[in-house]
Automatic annotation (TrEMBL):
<dbReference type="GO" id="GO:0007601">
    <property type="term" value="P:visual perception"/>
</dbReference>
<dbReference type="GO" id="GO:0098794">
    <property type="term" value="C:postsynapse"/>
</dbReference>
<dbReference type="GO" id="GO:0005886">
    <property type="term" value="C:plasma membrane"/>
</dbReference>
<dbReference type="InterPro" id="IPR000483">
    <property type="entry name" value="Cys-rich_flank_reg_C"/>
</dbReference>
<dbReference type="InterPro" id="IPR032675">
    <property type="entry name" value="LRR_dom_sf"/>
</dbReference>
<protein>
    <recommendedName>
        <fullName>Nyctalopin</fullName>
    </recommendedName>
</protein>
<dbReference type="InterPro" id="IPR001611">
    <property type="entry name" value="Leu-rich_rpt"/>
</dbReference>
<dbReference type="InterPro" id="IPR050541">
    <property type="entry name" value="LRR_TM_domain-containing"/>
</dbReference>
<dbReference type="InterPro" id="IPR003591">
    <property type="entry name" value="Leu-rich_rpt_typical-subtyp"/>
</dbReference>
<dbReference type="GO" id="GO:0030425">
    <property type="term" value="C:dendrite"/>
</dbReference>
<feature type="signal peptide">
    <location>
        <begin position="1"/>
        <end position="22"/>
    </location>
</feature>
<keyword id="KW-0433">Leucine-rich repeat</keyword>
<keyword id="KW-0654">Proteoglycan</keyword>
<keyword id="KW-0716">Sensory transduction</keyword>
<keyword id="KW-0964">Secreted</keyword>
<comment type="similarity">
    <text>Belongs to the small leucine-rich proteoglycan (SLRP) family. SLRP class IV subfamily.</text>
</comment>
<keyword id="KW-0677">Repeat</keyword>
Length: 475
């Protein structure tokens, strides 16, 4: 009996909390007791205004996908336990400064997809000193007031993608605890040298799918612990030599989908910890010697979909590239300059799909199927030269019998009666015979004596020919 009484006493707080959560739940919402308080779900409830009362024990409130247009001062009353508040996909157009007063322990605030918001007052987030995550995505904001985020010293993660900024919001400067910033698809045109000042704990920065044409020298100078930098799908045609200087902890760098036409050796000099490098979907036609020489820990290098015809091994030396190399969709010239790559493909198995565009003899083949020859001194022979040699062999020694028969044929032609002039011009053979006959010496020679001299000369000529052929075959 005593044990049962103890268990009833222990269960009372939990039962009381569950009952309190249910009793004070707004009519259009569903409330449930959770480990540390009460969870309130009011999403898709057709609400046009914020309910007047919430359970005091509420730790999470979800008001997504309603018709809320306005938040007045202290819109949620005093909720000392609230950690998470979500207002996504509403029609909010104005938030009164002080609307979130009374939420002193709020750690996560989601305002994404309120396309009519467009403007935030500098005092909108006053009293949210413990806020760690703020979601302002797809609010069509043109700017962020300089002082707006200064009220949030504990802010770690900011999602502000799909807005209309044109520049990196100045409100980010000095956020000493910010670790993640998502600014993609926000029409940003440049990363200035002062854009990211003071972000000494920033670990991930996404600027992808903007309109960035310029990254100023030293723009990432204060971001010494940055690990992931996404600049893909912008309009970058060039980068300063020290664009990424000081980013010694960077692990991912995505420059794909830009307009770069070369890779400079200075760009990646400090990126010894880099693991993933994306340079795909550019217009790269040239990679400087030593461009990847310090990237000894690289797991994957993406160079596909560019204009590369050749890639020198010197681009990687003196480091040793261990990861996967993606090279497809380039107009590769598969000559001896790529033989090192073929050897590496066979040895490591970490490179595939390198289609040849030239020379013509191997166009359409994969580099792995191209045959390179060796000269007598051990040097590589290009496929074009090798194929020419094989398909068009030089003259070889003819068999002796063939040579002798040709001389016998010539001898018989010499001894044949001279053809009439009109017959000699009927065919090419006849023309040749007439010429040969005309060229023989006839002065002082006549009758049978002349024929004997010709026969003797022909015999001597045949002997000489046989001797020459025998000597060639012996050599």
């Amino acid at each position: 009996t005593d044990i049962r009484g103890i268990s009833v006493v222990l269960s009372l707080p939990g039962a009381w909390a569950a009952g309190a959560c249910a009793r004070s739940c707004p009519a259009a919402c569903a409330c449930s007791s959770v480990e540390r308080g009460c969870s309130v779900r009011c999403d898709r409830a057709g609400l046009q205004r914020v309910p007047g009362e919430f359970p005091c024990e509420a730790v999470s409130i979800d008001l997504d996908r309603n018709g809320l247009r306005f938040l007045g001062e202290r819109a949620f009353g005093t909720l000392p336990s609230l950690r998470r508040l979500s207002l996504r996909h509403n029609n909010l157009s104005f938030i009164t400064p002080g609307a979130f007063k009374g939420l002193s322990r709020l750690a996560e605030l989601r305002l994404a997809h309120n396309g009519d918001l467009r403007y935030l007052h500098a005092r909108t987030f006053v009293a949210l000193g413990r806020l760690r995550r703020l979601d302002l995505a797809a609010c069509r904001l043109f700017s962020v007031p300089e002082r707006l985020l200064a009220e949030l010293p504990a802010l770690r993660e900011l999602a502000a993608f799909d807005n209309l900024f044109r520049r990196v919001p100045g409100a980010l400067r000095g956020l000493a605890n910010l670790t993640h910033a998502h600014l993609e698809r926000s029409r940003i045109e440049a990363v200035a040298s002062s854009s990211l000042q003071g972000l000494r704990r920033l670990r991930s920065l996404s600027l992808q799918a903007n309109r960035v044409r310029a990254v100023h020298a030293g723009a990432f100078g204060d971001c010494g612990v940055l690990e992931h930098l996404l600049l893909n799908d912008n309009l970058l045609a060039a980068l300063p030599a020290d664009a990424f200087r000081g980013l010694r902890r960077l692990r991912t760098l995505n420059l794909g989908g830009n307009a770069l036409d070369r890779v400079a050796s200075a760009w990646f000099a400090d990126l010894a910890e880099l693991e993933l490098l994306y340079l795909d979907r550019n217009s790269i036609a040239f990679v400087e010697e030593g461009a990847f020489q310090n990237l000894s820990g690289l797991l994957a290098l993406h160079l596909n979909s560019n204009r590369l015809t050749v890639l020198a091994w010197a681009a990687f030396q003196p480091g040793f590239f261990l990861g996967r190399l993606f090279l497809f969709r380039n107009p590769w010239c598969c000559d001896c300059r790529l033989q090192w790559l073929q050897d590496w493909m066979e040895g490591s198995g970490r490179v595939t799909d390198v289609p040849c565009a030239s020379p013509g003899s191997v166009a359409g083949l994969d580099l792995s199927h191209v045959a390179f020859g060796r000269s007598s001194d051990g040097l590589c022979v290009d496929p074009e030269e090798l194929n020419f040699t094989v398909s068009s062999p030089g003259p070889s020694a003819e068999p002796e019998a063939t040579t002798v028969s040709r001389f016998s044929s010539l001898l018989s032609k010499l001894l044949a009666p001279r053809a009439p002039v009109e017959d000699a011009f009927n065919t090419t053979v006849g023309l040749a015979n007439a010429s040969l006959s005309d060229s023989l010496p006839s002065r002082g020679v006549g009758g049978s004596g002349s024929k004997s001299v010709v026969l003797l000369a022909s015999y001597l000529l045949l002997c000489v020919a046989q001797h020459v052929v025998f000597g060639l075959q012996t050599d």
